[in-house]
Amino acid sequence: MAKIDKLSGSKVRVEVEVTADQFNHGLDHAFNAIKGDVEVKGFRKGKVTRAVFEQHYGVESLYEEAINHVMQETYVDAVVSNDIEVVAQPKIDFDITKVERGKGFTFVAEVAVKPEVTLGEYKGTKFTKLSEEVTPEAIDIEIEKLLEQNAELALKEEGTLENGDTAIFDFKGSVDGEFFEGGTAENYELKIGSGQFIPGFEEQMVGMAIGEEKDVNVTFPENYQAENLKGKDAVFHVTLHEMKVKQLPEINDDFVKELEKEGIETVEALRKDAEEKLLTQLIATNKNKKIDFAVEEAIQNASFEVAEEMIVEEKNRLVDNVTQQAKQYNLDLKTYLSFSGISEEDFDKNMMKDAEKSVSINLVIEAIGKAEGIKATEEEIATKYDELAAQYNMGLEQVQAAVNPTALEFEVVYKKTLDFLVDSLIIE
């Protein structure tokens, strides 16, 4: 039996009454769970009777396991039977000292629940029309990128090192007059201005001539991955051996043919292809802008109160995702963050902020989907399964066994709801 009371902050108080019979069932469960490992003189291991066990160890030794078991069962039953959508682990208020054999007991669970969302205006919002025109300048930039990709490096025998040039040089670094591990290299190749080295290093190399030697003075960042070098002043003795400059190919039909792009053999055709690709990207970008606008408006016009526990749960999920990304590089999270140039404190704040935004979006989109009666068809869910199978190169049955259809249903409805919001915008 359970009593449900709504609390502020999207929380509920669940008071559960455990009967004497239920507690006795919990004691039975607890004994059965451990009897296989119990050893009592005169009995084979695992064959001791309940009565003998209690004589030796006392029935109180079963209380913790029995209580945990019966609490779990009765709490879940209370939540399910009362249609409570919990979003975090409950906080239990319970005094074990009041438990007696042959009697029931009461415990209280306080738990965060999915908040009720009161929607405001979310459709028919006015939105300023976005341009879907690809300019000649944008096409020129794409062609320039293509030329850059096919450029060759040629020796630069005169002049001095400039931004964009590639330097081949030796360096030897020291801190407090002592050379350090990893601070020495010969014939190192570096594009000046790429930002690969410590701040200030590349800038000080600009203007060097072939054969010139120079001391470059830098300070290691406070978030540098090597603990012994963080914030340290360093001197790198640099010797420039060669300079290389990028030479772009000439844009003509012969160059286009060398690219071996199917159906594209002229400069005109190449520009047309670039235009089509840019238009596709622009349309996608514009749609994302419409989605962001429509969702933000819907959130601003809605009212709901999210329990902090719900946000923390989402934050933990986001952190887990980043942790898995780090593992792909054989790094722990702390090291991964140091390479990314972000402190653990800032990372935690960002994750909390992202979690709050994610929770708000999901709640409002779900509420709109329900309000508009948006559903996923069996055909749409089947299509999602096919897409996943193709994406991960797995058999359809494997994917169906691994992915709950409810999750796919949510994904389909979510996307359809976003499309609905975009379609409902009034473009001016």
Give a nutshell description of this structure:
The protein is of the alpha+beta class.
CATH fold name of the largest domain: Trigger factor, domain 2
CATH architecture of the largest domain: Orthogonal Bundle
Indicate the structural class.
alpha+beta
List unreliable stretches of 5+ residues: none
Mean pLDDT across residues: 93
* Backbone CA Rg: 33 Å
Number of domains: 3
Query: How many distinct helices?
Result: 13
Sequence of secondary-structure elements: EEHHHEEEHEEEHEEHHHHHHHHE
Sheet with the most strands, sense and barrel status:
5 strands, antiparallel
CATH homologous superfamily annotation of the largest domain: Trigger factor, C-terminal domain
Query: What percentage of amino acids are in beta strands?
Result: 15-25%
The shape is extended
Number of strands: 11
State the distance separating the first and last CA atoms.
58 Å
Helix fraction, binned, reads 40-55%
CATH class of the largest domain: Mainly Alpha
What can you tell me about this protein's structure?
There is one protein chain. The chain is an alpha+beta fold and 428 residues long. It has 3 domains: 2-112, 2-Layer Sandwich (Alpha-Beta Plaits); 152-247, Chitinase A, domain 3 (Roll), CATH 3.10.50; 267-427, Trigger factor, C-terminal domain (Trigger factor, domain 2). It is 47% helix and 18% strand. The protein has 13 helices and 11 strands. It has helices spanning 20-34, 50-57, 63-81, 136-149, 201-205, 253-259, 267-301, 308-328, 333-340, 344-371, 378-391, 396-402, 405-423; strands spanning 2-7, 11-18, 91-93, 105-112, 126-127, 152-155, 166-175, 178-191, 213-219, 233-247, 426-427. Strands 6, 7, 8, 9 and 10 form a 5-stranded antiparallel sheet that branches. A 4-stranded antiparallel sheet has the order 1-2-4-3. The mean pLDDT is 93.
